[in-house]
Amino acid sequence: MPEKIKVIITDDQKDIKIPTGIRMLIRRCCHAVLDLEGFHDPAEISVRFVDEEEIRRLNKEYRNIDKPTDVLSFPMREEDGTFGINPATGARVLGDIVISVPQAVRQGEEFGHGLRREIAFLSAHSMLHLLGYDHEQGGIEAVKMREKEETVLTQLGLKRNGSYYMDEE
Question: Which residues are registered as beta bridge partners of 50?
Answer without folding.
Answer: 100
